[in-house]
Amino acid sequence: METPGSQSSLHRANLERVVRAVRLAGSLTQAEIARSTGLSAATVSNIVRELKDGGTVQVTPTSAGGRRARSVSLSGDAGVVVGVDFGHTHLRVAIGNLAHEVLAEESEPLDVDASAAQGFDRAELLVNRLIAGTDIRPDKVIGVGLGVPGPIDVETGTLGSTAILPGWVGINPREELSERLGVPVHVDNDANLGALGELVWGGGRGVKDLAYIKVASGVGAGLVINGQIYRGPGGTAGEIGHITLDESGPVCRCGNRGCLETFTAARYILGLLHSSHGPDLTVERMVQLAREGDPGCRRVIGDVGRHIGSGVANLCNLLNPSRVVLGGDLAEAGELVLAPIRESVARYAIPSAARRLSVVPGALGGRAEVLGALALVLNEMGDSTLLDGSVPAAAPAFT
Q: Is the separation of the CB atoms in 71 and 28 below 8 Å?
């Protein structure tokens, strides 16, 4: 039996530190492991050898700074995780291994607002289909990350606003999907998962303080502070869409007037172009037309960028992030929307905060949230599971 402070308990703690560093990063050289864990190079070398012999990690030749090195990642056979992303108009599912490799991914249109039961039925079918199609043993599934387009109450696991998804009133997404699939489920809102996805795989790599702004049916922000998602005590941190821009403005779904969302969300901005471009205009088509030079679409996108920039300036003054990553369909407009955001930040943010901020488009597009769901499981899973070779206690329900 291990006792605190004993050699065996210290060795176990060092094993877990190395596994955690590799798990969160996807892959690291041994020198990078030593820097991130504070362990000596010799200790890291011995631990990596032990983990490799036990099948927990795999080591491949690489180079770093022009020198030969060894890249350490979790074994592809150590297990897999599942990501499920519910958008207002789509369902996307991905399967990934613990080495941060995406093994399968699929999406389909879905009106998530209509019925939670229908959404979970479709998610269950799609997860089962992808698992079967990749020839993965069901007992290799360690957990599922679930993203929903609304704030999650961190204490109850339920949606914090029934106005956003009225068809989900009384539903606990985590419990519902866990009961269907028979494995642990971790749930978060889509903006937080987009931030995680960009942090691990995309435009936020190497940054410890950033904000991911998603502009779609609503407007939300995922906040990363010192490398960790900040949710707040009630899970509603990052609701940037409900910053008041005009107290006499349009009534928002939250009940207030003139929220940022009422000037930037798709259902509001497309209405500005109905008379000139027809009622069937989509954000994707608006962006395409703007890139082709359409003056009306360019004006609307520019105005949206300036409004978003006002909200970003508030974030800069409060949190002083080093990077803002723009996600959602509007990010495809590139500099047509990014330049006005930067202009507003320069105008309204404290100069010292504005100078240190970079505003960039997301690198993952519509995949940011589902990849963030994979990252959520990788963040939340325990390292003892990998070291002990254990599997979920409940038999997975995958068929």
A: yes
CA-to-CA distance for 204 and 221, rounded, in angstroms?
14
The answer to whether 235 and 160 are in contact (CB under 8 A) is: yes
Tell me which residues of the chain have a pLDDT lower than 50: 1, 390-395
Q: What is the pLDDT of residue 391?
A: 38
CA distances from 101 to 94, 108, 167, 371 (A): 10, 22, 34, 10
Structure tokens at 332: 């495809």
Task: Report DSSP state, residue 381.
Answer: S
**Cα(119)–Cα(107) distance, rounded to whole angstroms?**
13
Q: Which tokens go with 331?
A: 């990010």
> Of 266, 273, 263, 268, which is closest to residue 241 (Cα–Cα)?
263
The residues pairing with 83 across neighbouring beta strands, listed in sequence order, are: 94, 145
- How far is residue 254's CA from residue 242's CA, in Å, rounded to a whole number? 8
Provide the token pair at 274: 């109905």
Sheet strands (E) in 181-289: 185-189, 210-215, 219-225, 228-230
Q: From CA 370, how far away is CA 190, in angstroms rounded?
A: 9
Question: Comparing C-alpha atoms, which of 191, 211, 202 is closest to residue 88?
Answer: 191
118's enclosing H/E stretch is helix 116-133
- Position 3 scores a pLDDT of 55
Contact present, 62 and 70 (Cβ < 8 Å): yes
Which residue stretches of 185-319 are H helix?
190-201, 261-264, 266-269, 274-277, 283-291, 295-319
Cα separation, 249 vs 262, in Å, equals 8
| Cα atoms in the Cβ-side hemisphere of radius 13 Å centred on 103 | 22
What CA–CA distance (Å, rounded) separates 67 from 107? 41
For 360-383, b/e burial (b = at least 16 CB within 10 A) is: bbbbbebbbbbbbbbbbbbbebeb
pLDDT digits (tens, 9 = 90+) for 245-274: 999 999 998 899 999 999 998 889 999 999
